[in-house]
Amino acid sequence: MKTASEIRRARLNQLVSTHGSMADLCQALGYARNDAAKLTRIANGNIRHERGGKPYQMGDEMARAIEETLKLERGWMDTPEDYELAASDNGRRILSLFDKIPEADRATAMRLLDALTKPSVDPQAPNGTHG
Prior knowledge:
Layout: H1 4-19, H2 22-28, H3 37-44, E1 47-48, E2 54-55, H4 60-69, H5 81-87, H6 89-100, H7 106-117
Antiparallel strand pairs: 1-2
Helix pairs in contact: 1-2, 1-3, 5-6
């Protein structure tokens, strides 16, 4: 079972992936794009040598602030990703189907799912905005 720090680190990395980069996530959170050092240290689990070798961690205050700013459900940063997926009927079906995919084809399936979940660019929209 993952610890709260590990779950928050995974969720932070999920947000980075969703937003495209740590700089983009910082901007969405209202930080300067180049003010990513603290979040990067947390995401990477860097060691704090001045604190006896403990890793950088996200506290409750920061977790709640991220949730509020990004309009996420309270406690989202503390809920494992697989819990949300497994809790839904579609999630259970997806997991069941994925288990049936031969190991050699799973990377392809993941790329396909990633492509399907990225916003598409509408060539007809002004400035090539997302549709």
